[in-house]
Structures are given as structure tokens and as C-alpha cells.
Write a structure and sequence with these properties.
Length: 268
């Protein structure tokens, strides 16, 4: 999975299923409402965004959907006490979910709660929550399987290493190897790679430690729901899959336009 795609992908296409057996995709009503709210924020329409986030909260049907929507409702509160109440609601939901994709949201949650207590003059609670934020282990424990999408023809046993050119911008040298636990996301990456080769979604095995992709984790959505990771160590190819959901030519055209128009900062 390449970096530029990861930045955009989370806004438009988010996998198939999490451990909670809820569909976390653009077609999920709560995800769709939150994406619409994010779009309103970018257009400088905070009131419209807030309305959409409250609608998402009111229509949420499970703890994970409530966790997602509470994240946005909290940041639209104008009163510190109200913001704190929503953040603590979000935290309690995250604690109930107990899912690896949510774990990376704990540190920023505790930090934001601490800032609220700080603003309210409660130094003891602020200190306690800052310590909780610092104690959070944000190292992913995802067991995979993991996938990497490309148009390069590779063999079982080959190693993917850092330093190669990007699939999308040949002048951009990658300092990390990006991968995902969602085969469909890797398939989309393969489809969009600037090459005339055949699309491949390889099953890969990290040979060293890896981390959450900072370009998507706690950015568009709390935590790392796209299960997107990166590593400086080689990825070993151990297999290949062919049954990912493929995009239509028109959908791919729109994706390429989004990538070409992406001006966001890249954390490499």
C-alpha cells in the first residue's frame, strides 16, 4: 500500500469488516454522515458539519458507530465542560470496544481530556490523564494477514525494501514500506499504480517491527480503522490473492483525479 493513496483512501473507501462484524465502509450510514460532516468542515461550514455529526450520533446502532460519531461531536463543542463530557463518553465507548483498530485512539483521547481539565483549572485530573496518555502502548498488535498492492511482477520469497520510487510519483523515494490488513485496499492501490503491468495483491509478512501509518491514524477517523501500517524492515512475499473488489474504469478515473489533485502533506 503506497503512502499517497493511504492519505486519500480513508476518506472514500474503508475496507470491509472489523472484528466487531460491522461493515465499516463508505456505504455504512454513520461513516457516510461523518464523511459528509468532514466535507462541510473543509468548506468552512462548521454548523452544517455539527448537525451531520449529531445526526450520526443519534442514528448510531452500536458502540463502534457511537465511538466514531462522538469523536466528531466532541470537537464541535464550544463549551469546555461539554467537550469534556463528550470526550469522556467517547473514551468509555472505546474501552468497551476493546479492538486493536481503536487502541491507537486512546493516547490522543486522554490528551484531549487532560487539556479540558487543564482549561477548567483541575490540575490533578489533567496530570492523571496526561500520564494515562503517555502510558498508552500504540504499537499495533494486528496479526494480519497483511497485503501489499502493486503492478510489479514479484515471486514468492522476494523482499520489498525501502528506497524505491513511489508507485504514483516516481520522483518520490519511499522511506517506509506501506501495507494493510485489508485486501480490498491493497487491490485498489494496485489498480492505481502508474504502470502498464498486471495488478497484484501480494500477501506479505513483516520481517521487523511496524507501526500505524501516521498519515491516516487518528486523522480522518479515530484510531486506525483502515488497518494501515508501515515498516522500515523488508516485507517478505508469501503469497498472492486475486479476489479483491475491483473498481470500474469510471471509478478508477475518479480516483486518479483525486490523487493528482492531492496537495496534502505527506509524512514519509
Amino acid at each position: 500500500m503506497e503512502l499517497e493513496l493511504e492519505i486519500i483512501q480513508v476518506s472514500f473507501y474503508i475496507g470491509k469488516k472489523l472484528a466487531l462484524n460491522m461493515e465499516f465502509s463508505q456505504n455504512n450510514n454513520i461513516v457516510r454522515l461523518c464523511l459528509q460532516g468532514i466535507a462541510m468542515e473543509k468548506k468552512g461550514k462548521p454548523e452544517e458539519a455539527s448537525t451531520l455529526f449529531f445526526q450520526a450520533w443519534n442514528e448510531a446502532t452500536n458502540d463502534f458507530e457511537k465511538f466514531i460519531s462522538a469523536h466528531y461531536v466532541a470537537r464541535h463543542q464550544k463549551n469546555v465542560s461539554d467537550k469534556l463530557r463528550w470526550l469522556e463518553t467517547d473514551l468509555q465507548l472505546a474501552l468497551k470496544i476493546d479492538d486493536d483498530t481503536v487502541k491507537s485512539a486512546f493516547s490522543p483521547l486522554y490528551t484531549n481530556i487532560a487539556k479540558c481539565y487543564e482549561d477548567l483549572g483541575d490540575t490533578n485530573e489533567a496530570k492523571k490523564n496526561y500520564e494515562l496518555a503517555a502510558s498508552c502502548d500504540d504499537k499495533p498488535s494486528d496479526k494480519g494477514p497483511f497485503y501489499h498492492g502493486t503492478k510489479a511482477d514479484l515471486q514468492i520469497g522476494d523482499l520489498l525494501t525501502v528506497g524505491s520510487g513511489s508507485n504514483y510519483k516516481s520522483e518520490f523515494k519511499m522511506k517506509h514500506i506501506y501495507f494493510t490488513a485489508l485486501a480490498h485496499g491493497a487491490g485498489l492501490a494496485a489498480s492505481l499504480a502508474k504502470s502498464d503491468g498486471h495488478e497484484h495483491v501480494y500477501i506479505v509478512e513483516p520481517t521487523g517491527s511496524f507501526e500505524n501509518d501516521p498519515n491516516v491514524t487518528n486523522n480522518y477517523f479515530p484510531g486506525n480503522p483502515t488497518r494501515s501500517y508501515r515498516t522500515e524492515a523488508p516485507l517478505k512475499i508469501i503469497g498472492e490473492v486475486t479476489d479483491w473488489t475491483k473498481q470500474t474504469p469510471e471509478e478508477l478515473k475518479k480516483w486518479r483525479q483525486r490523487i493528482d489533485g492531492n496537495k496534502g502533506e505527506i509524512i514519509n
